[in-house]
């Protein structure tokens, strides 16, 4: 289950959102969900209620004992690697080894501007941050000489609970090259079908699996998280009406957040210059037909999940958002129950 707070303070206060989120996490554990995760964003209704995923995940860890705790994702460019590695190592202990760490590159101009970081450094800072965190977790007396950070010799405390370090996931939106690099390095993968075509995503996953196998990593150890928003209800029409309303809200919030990037035509972020046009022409029915969002009753969502398996493979963990925007707690909880009881058993036995 994933939590991406696309919500304005006028709709729901931060306190109310966090309280409801933690209740849903407790329910997710009781229902047998595999993991919970959250994002890192700032300033706007597009994710801005989660500026520090480690803080929210720590609260989740304190209320659970089995479910895995996942960053989906932290942005290394915005935090010194010594600080980031230390925070995550602490969370690994507080969760007793239930932490999975997803790293993301970041893509919102206002966030980079606030941190005083040029966007054209985003990939280099991402690569360097991931490398530094992994070394700090797995080595002692680390001497690091990077383009942006130099330190050492230092030995991080605490050492991670999981040896040699928590599982590392790479979040990739559209880049097959990033997926292949993750596979070669033996890192796991996080992808979002809503921002790419099925054909492009299939190619990304193909390159990732091939690179993983070519590097000699154990195929059974490979983990891929694929993220959807899921509008599930006893009544299919209600689910679709809810989906259309909140997906439109999501698109509007995201369009406002990426507008400076979309207008900038930055070569390092290809395709974003077309995003505003896509947002203006957004069609929920077309998105649903393309299987970019789940919506309906249990039979319909089960069929969508089967299509996901056919298109992208059976070696996937589906990460679902049930509480987008200002959706009431009770409706999100009911969707989680329906999925756990009537959809998931068709795939998990």
TrEMBL record:
One MF annotation (Gene Ontology) recorded for this entry: oxidoreductase activity
Source organism per UniProt: Streptomyces edwardsiae
Domain Luciferase-like stretches: 9-315
E.C. designation(s): 1.-.-.-
Domain of life: Bacteria
Keywords, in A-Z order: Monooxygenase, Oxidoreductase
SUPFAM superfamilies referenced in this protein's UniProt entry, alphabetically: Bacterial luciferase-like
Broad class of enzyme this protein falls into: oxidoreductase
Protein name: LLM class flavin-dependent oxidoreductase
Stored PANTHER family: BLR5498 PROTEIN, LUCIFERASE-LIKE MONOOXYGENASE
């Amino acid at each position: 289950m994933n939590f991406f707070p696309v919500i304005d303070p006028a709709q729901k206060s931060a306190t109310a959102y966090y309280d409801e989120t933690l209740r849903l996490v407790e329910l997710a554990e009781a229902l047998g969900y595999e993991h919970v995760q959250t994002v890192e964003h700032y300033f706007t209704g597009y994710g801005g209620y989660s500026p520090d995923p480690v803080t929210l995940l720590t609260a989740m860890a304190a209320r659970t004992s089995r479910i895995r705790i996942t960053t989906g994702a932290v942005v290394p460019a915005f935090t010194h690697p010594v600080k980031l590695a230390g925070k995550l190592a602490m969370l690994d202990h507080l969760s007793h080894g239930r932490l999975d760490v997803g790293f993301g590159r970041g893509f919102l101009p206002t966030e980079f501007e606030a941190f005083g970081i040029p966007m054209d450094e985003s990939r280099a800072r991402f690569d360097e941050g991931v490398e530094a965190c992994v070394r700090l977790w797995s080595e002692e007396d680390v001497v690091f000489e990077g383009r942006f950070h130099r330190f050492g010799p230092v030995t991080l405390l605490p050492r991670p609970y999981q040896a040699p370090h928590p599982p590392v996931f790479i979040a990739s939106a559209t880049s097959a090259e990033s997926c292949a690099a993750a596979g070669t390095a033996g890192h796991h993968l996080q992808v979002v079908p809503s921002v790419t075509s099925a054909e492009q995503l299939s190619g990304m996953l193909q390159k990732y699996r091939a690179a993983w196998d070519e590097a000699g990593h154990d195929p059974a150890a490979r983990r891929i998280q694929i993220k959807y928003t899921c509008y599930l209800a006893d009544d299919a029409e209600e689910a679709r009406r809810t989906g259309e309303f909140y997906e439109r809200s999501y698109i509007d919030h995201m369009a406002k957040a990426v507008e400076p990037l979309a207008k900038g035509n930055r070569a390092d972020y290809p395709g974003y210059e077309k995003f505003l046009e896509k947002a203006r022409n957004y069609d929920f029915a077309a998105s649903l037909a393309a299987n970019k969002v789940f919506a309906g009753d249990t039979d319909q969502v089960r069929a969508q999940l089967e299509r996901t398996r056919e298109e992208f493979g059976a070696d996937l963990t589906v990460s679902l958002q049930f509480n987008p925007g200002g959706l009431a707690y009770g409706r999100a909880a009911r969707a989680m129950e329906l999925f756990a009881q009537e959809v998931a058993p068709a795939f998990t036995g």
